[in-house]
Design brief:
There is one protein chain. The protein is α/β, with parallel strands linked by helices. It is built from six helices and 15 strands. Helix content is about 15%, strand content about 25%. Strands 2, 3, 5, 6 and 7 form a five-stranded antiparallel beta sheet that branches. The chain has a five-stranded mixed beta sheet with strand order 10-9-13-15-14. The two termini are about 40 Å apart. It binds zinc ion (ZN). The site of zinc ion (ZN) has 5 residues, from helix 5.
Length: about 350
Amino acid sequence: MQKSSLISKLKKSLIKTASLALLLSSISFASCGNVYFSKISGQLQDNETDSERQGTVKVYDSSNKKLLKEIMTDSNGEFNVSLGWFYQKLILQARAIKEGESTSYVRTIEISPADAQDLTVRVVPYEDLLKKKIRLEEFVDFAQEAIGGWIRKWNLNNIEGVEIIYKNPFDGTVITKAQQDFIEKKYLDSENIGFFFEGRKIRIQKDDASTKQSEKHYSWKPTSIRERTFDMIKDIIPDKNWIVIAGFKRIILSNIDGNPAGVGLSMVDKDSYINAGMIYLRGIIGAGLLSHESEHTILGVFHSKILPPELTLMCLPIKLDKPGFADKKLAKIVNETTYMPREKIEDILGMDFYSE
Ligand SMILES: [Zn+2]
């Protein structure tokens, strides 16, 4: 279970991270007046294999979305666009085309003079959706609902590890050695939770009764019993760049009915990068529940009712025991390094060009 309000409440308690220097480099030009450009070059690729794609590239004047140029890439996806005039800001749209048929969604990016050359433009391919008879709009709606408007994401290279707490300091719930081994196996399986880490081998720390305080990657701030309803889940605060897993007996959440079997939280910094995660698991730890809560935490996504539970862990009740087709496609989008935090789904999964 996860609610956006949980995230916003937790945000306040987060350590502020250094900006990851993703501000557009155009800012550095501001002091020397307007900089214009008239040439754009790059390569069209897909975001799932990073291989080149042939397709259409359209360039618009950013101020009025007027189409300035439309070209086809060469067979290697390479494009070079020369404009007859100088512009300060442009919008580029691209889509893969094969034998006259569109094979991807439309990618939209705003470009500035500083980043107009050697662009890597990645589009989300959809041949697999057509093959599975999933409507293209349906997958867009699923992604919209799951992502909740814009992308929040980890920089996967920053993840220090996953720590499985032996004994929850709040209620004493123990995650046994066998359960820890089970969790570890799922995290290291590249077809299971490991998929969300793009196949990286993540360090798993399995605590036991002798784990020293200095080896723990979370802080523990007991609150009074009176405050322990919703607030209980804030008692364990993971360190920056750690995902921490704990057992629990009972959490009464003010905005979720009943006693959830699990809670998966992601902590988001001011730039919408996820920089810590917390997972609570109750009782018997099932593979589906573990994968579901991990998806909340790693991809920063919410529940969605659009696609059936045979295709995604995020449609309740959970039917899968590992990431489904839609979870994997979504993970490739969230983890795509050229898609930045706060980018909107419509700029990644566009149905049409501005001008057809
Ligand atoms: Zn959930």
